[in-house]
């Protein structure tokens, strides 16, 4: 078992240390944390290990941690440690995706057996992903950033090129378009993937403590600083720092951040000694920062440091052809999350989805998938075709509608032609002719299609 990784989370220090020691003696590599927040810095999509966590903890509890991890990768095995009164809660968690649970007090050899099975399961999951990619099916990156539009194919190509490098990156995109998913993918594609990934919401940092949060402080650095504290930058040593919505960062802090990026050193508040910082910076913004520079709310020199490479995430309104495919994927995830049976989606529903504006982008579409799988309906009325009816000839509008219906049916039936022409009331020959007329190639909708680089 040597080399296998287990993240152990428990706020009870003695129990955590003794459990970690027992697992290490059993041949596992263990990283232990007293809080769930620290664990999320290490476990993400493609994490080669499992998580063992106590349910009852202050702050982020074990169930919340499990849900957060499964948002990153739903196949990460999570083993829950429960007290006697939490067994029913653990059983419910099993239905929601927990791998297994063990009740206190437990025999460590029993926990080691469960961990070994979970690690074997995780190993098989990751191997199957590699095999699917080798067979021409969607690889990990395509599962995370789904879409066959030119914009998404190009984005994934850039990520595969940029990911393994150490260059800092600026990601620009509308709210809900996938900036954080893209940032996490960059980290996971890099040689830093086994190191911390620390996400910092610049808009949510308390104004009076922002420097302490980022850079840390020494004892007595300010009133109330009774003990030294590591800042978030220092916690990310060796890994990646995500500066989410960096345009919200105060101007005076921007100057200090610029120095950190230039010199790769930090100085805690109350100290004169610089600490070397080995990290990669990724920043996100929902609007181009050039506008902030023009308004005087963002430093131009900081922008030039961050935008060595800029990635623009296209909104759904610019890749409508991806909406049906993306909705079906989100629906599958929702079905697994809510323990519902997979369901079919009528082509006309997929067509209607494609016509919407989706101002909330993928986040809004995910909510729609959740409502659909829970039989709550899709109460939207606004569509993309808002213009006057006379903007295009009737024949063109009918042709556009027909093409959309056929394409939605192809997506709904994963490129299988028989159910497509039967559901549309067409002959096989008529379907072929219409597909040729509208440039719809069957291969694009097959689940085993290989993506062109």
From TrEMBL:
InterPro entries: AAA+_ATPase, AAA_lid_NorR, CheY-like_superfamily, Homeodomain-like_sf, HTH_Fis, P-loop_NTPase, Sig_transdc_resp-reg_receiver, Sigma_54_int. Residues 5-119 form the Response regulatory domain. Residues 145-374 form the Sigma-54 factor interaction domain. The modification 4-aspartylphosphate is found at residue 54. It comes from Pelagibacterium flavum. This is Sigma-54 dependent transcriptional regulator. The keyword Phosphoprotein applies. PANTHER family: C4-DICARBOXYLATE TRANSPORT TRANSCRIPTIONAL REGULATORY PROTEIN DCTD, TRANSCRIPTIONAL REGULATORY PROTEIN. Keywords: Activator, ATP-binding, DNA-binding, Nucleotide-binding, Phosphoprotein, Transcription, Transcription regulation, Two-component regulatory system.
